[in-house]
């Protein structure tokens, strides 16, 4: 049972690249967050929920141990702290905070696959993830654990290669390194405690999870409305990106055309509209979706 009587707790990153996006997700799910005197704890004024704002590497432990009921954390952090103890359940990817943990090397190191790392020293802030990767590849290498500025390790002769998070690659390039191998693709995920909340709070917990799923589903989704000739309906439906089965309705006063409404889960580009028009569609309207459930 959750450690806070009568209230749910959600753990989010206090500062860092996931912090603001995590708060946006919470607010978009209809929770009115109120900042109090304590920067560690924010209250939700319209539900019995607290937001615990902590270091990102504390979030998996807090959720796994039942200190918090839900948490928003990067997969890279979740994988790094995994040590065989209680494990939080990953409910869904959230679509933000994307990055990649990669092996990067200087130009002086001839890289031809993971075997090239055998016998070398590799600097990283993610020693557990890297060790699991190396073991899976059958590579024996020494790991140098660093808490920051990993990219300078080869230049300082601390290591021959590095394993670090990459978003744009600009930091690697600035330090004369080239990314060679993907160790882990990461993004923010919603995690849930294996410890059940109080029975009176279970319905609220389920509701918050469903709302967040709706927010995530609506990200990038578009609502498309158009008119289509009946004989071109199959072709036009096939062009709509990620639409599934659209809603087709008769068009007033016309037997040869229908109105089509569809939720498109994939991007709708100008090229998509041009293809729809070429197939016979008209009065095409694309609208953003704020919420979806």
Helix/strand layout:
Blueprint: E1 8-13, H1 19-28, E2 33-35, E3 41-44, E4 49-54, H2 59-64, E5 70-74, H3 75-81, E6 89-93, E7 99-105, E8 121-124, H4 127-137, E9 142-145, E10 161-166, H5 170-174, E11 178-186, E12 188-192, H6 202-218, E13 222-229, H7 233-239, E14 247-251, E15 254-264, H8 270-278, E16 282-288
Task: Summarize the structure in words.
- By secondary structure, the chain is of the alpha+beta class.
- It contains eight helices and 16 strands.
- Strands 2-3-4-1-5-12-6 form a seven-stranded mixed β-sheet. The chain has a five-stranded mixed β-sheet with strand order 9-8-10-7-11. A four-stranded antiparallel β-sheet has the order 14-15-13-16, with helices on one face.
- The protein is flat, with a radius of gyration of 24 Å.
- The two termini are 28 Å apart.
Describe the structure concisely for a colleague.
The protein has helices spanning 19-28, 59-64, 75-81, 127-137, 170-174, 202-218, 233-239, 270-278, and strands at 8-13, 33-35, 41-44, 49-54, 70-74, 89-93, 99-105, 121-124, 142-145, 161-166, 178-186, 188-192, 222-229, 247-251, 254-264, 282-288. With 293 residues, it is of the alpha+beta class.
């Amino acid at each position: 049972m959750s450690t806070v009587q009568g209230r749910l707790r959600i753990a989010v990153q206090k500062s860092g690249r996931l912090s603001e996006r995590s708060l946006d997700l919470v607010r978009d799910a209809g929770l009115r967050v109120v900042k109090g005197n304590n920067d560690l704890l924010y209250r939700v004024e319209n539900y019995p929920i607290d937001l615990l704002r902590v270091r990102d590497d504390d979030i998996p432990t807090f959720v796994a141990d039942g200190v918090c009921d839900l948490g928003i954390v990067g997969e890279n952090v979740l994988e790094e702290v995994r040590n065989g103890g209680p494990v939080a359940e990953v409910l869904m990817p959230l679509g933000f905070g994307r990055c990649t943990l990669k092996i990067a090397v200087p130009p002086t190191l001839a890289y031809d696959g993971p075997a090239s790392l055998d016998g070398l020293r590799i600097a990283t802030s993610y020693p557990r993830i890297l060790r699991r990767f190396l073991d899976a590849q059958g590579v024996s290498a020494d790991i140098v654990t660093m808490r920051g500025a990993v990219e300078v390790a080869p230049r300082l002769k601390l290591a021959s290669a590095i394993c670090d998070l990459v978003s744009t690659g600009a930091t690697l390039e600035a330090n004369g390194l080239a990314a060679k191998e993907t160790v882990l693709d990461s993004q923010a995920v919603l995690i849930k405690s294996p410890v059940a909340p109080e029975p009176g709070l279970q319905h609220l917990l389920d509701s918050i999870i469903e709302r967040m799923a709706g927010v995530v589903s609506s990200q990038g989704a578009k609502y498309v409305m158009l008119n289509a000739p009946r004989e071109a309906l199959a072709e036009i439906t096939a062009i709509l990106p990620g639409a599934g089965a659209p809603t087709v309705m008769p068009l007033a006063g016309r037997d040869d055309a229908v109105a089509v409404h569809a939720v498109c889960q994939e991007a709708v580009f100008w090229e998509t509209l041009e293809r729809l028009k070429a197939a016979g569609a008209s009065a095409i309207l694309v609208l953003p979706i704020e919420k979806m459930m």
